[in-house]
């Protein structure tokens, strides 16, 4: 990735934040000259013309307040300082470095009036994995992520704290240990670092990849639920879905149908399975079909210049606008969290069915693996099912769209705001809850299939199938539940596997609709 020349993808942002890809490179000499020209033009403009927003004026509703030349140099530091009022939990190291990466993508394009050294110092944060400590609360998503991003600007100036080598330390101490001088930010540079959509876009990148993986895993788990419940493979046949060919829906049905290619039922319980099995592709497919448009919006934002004002040195003008407004990200995150929560609800219903002896066609109550004479004192997955129901309810509750809750702020200057960062945080919370439901479902279907095997109720054709091999592999994380035991650590381990996209699911033959 070469700054100012290559387009960023969602995957590259996440890989850079995780330290899992080659270092980002500075642009060529033409790129450097473009940044220098932008900064030099801005300097001439405010010195000669005397009026440039955020340079010789106050901020926001204070744009009519003139700042004398002798006080201009103090504004950048004070801007970061008075925005140092974030609250709530702090972002993880990877989330904070994703924010830095997205901000780097924007200001490195040469329209923000910043010197190359500012870009280089952001790059140093990534290279040394110095993550600004950023509280997650305090942004309304326009004028950008001002308060959260003030923590990035402050760190470049040697103020506030960072996460470095597993410790929380002062930024000043870390720069000193690396023999790097903190920056004295010039007029407009702090504003350029703060007045954009970097936080919401960074969180959206992470949410997208987690949601895409969920479409794969939910399809795999549905196939195992069909086996455990002795359901119908015919509900997923290609001829049926050719008659209603939403691409993501077709994709999910194809994955389930392929997973069940070795499956034939030993007996028939129902002509038509309940909706949470039969209509699984119709639920998962909505999420899958929302992903391509989501990718387009996120990557457009990612490759945009999203601060204000913008500096076009070649045309010789300062452009005042509202590219800090995060409306597209807000809408994507509101939509994505709704589609994800519906998948949580789907898996929760499948889980409730497979643990219930009234509906699971001969499996023990709560999937207890205890010998029959001891089952009256063992309760299997009873509490896990209750937990999954609680997580699902909370996920569904979180689907209230944040983007419609605009608030008029800052003396009615910011009188219509996006709430994009709140929507992104909500989406990540819904994903966390859904991944917990998915972990519970993983334990249940692995247990259910193992019990069918004990009862000799699995078709012979299925015994050595890839689907059953995958189910058996889960026992290294969550062994067969022969008697009651605490399952918290196994659930946490499975959630970790899900979030790390631990399992390779499906090959190139099942085309990835999210890339289309």
Describe the model.
- The protein is mostly helical and 516 residues long.
- It folds into 2 domains: 187 residues, Fumarase C, Chain B, domain 1, CATH 1.10.275.10; 299 residues, Fumarase C, Chain A, domain 2.
- 52% of the residues lie in helices and 4% in strands.
- It has a 3-stranded antiparallel sheet with strand order 2-4-5.
- The longest helix is centred in the C-terminal third of the chain and has 35 residues.
- It is elongated.
- The C terminus is likely disordered.
Summarize the structure.
The protein has 516 residues and is mainly α.
Write the layout of secondary structure elements.
Blueprint: H1 10-18, H2 29-48, H3 69-72, H4 75-82, E1 87-90, H5 93-107, H6 116-127, E2 131-132, E3 135-137, H7 146-156, E4 161-164, E5 167-170, H8 171-177, H9 189-194, H10 198-228, H11 238-241, H12 247-259, H13 275-278, H14 280-302, E6 310-312, E7 317-319, H15 327-354, H16 382-397, H17 420-454, H18 466-473, H19 488-499
Antiparallel strand pairs: 1-3, 2-4, 4-5, 6-7
CATH class of the largest domain equals Mainly Alpha
Largest sheet: 3 strands, antiparallel
Cα(first) to Cα(last) distance is 22 Å
* Outline type: elongated
What order do the SSEs take from the amino end to the carboxyl end, as H and E?
A: HHHHEHHEEHEEHHHHHHHEEHHHHH
Tell me the CATH architecture of the largest domain: Up-down Bundle
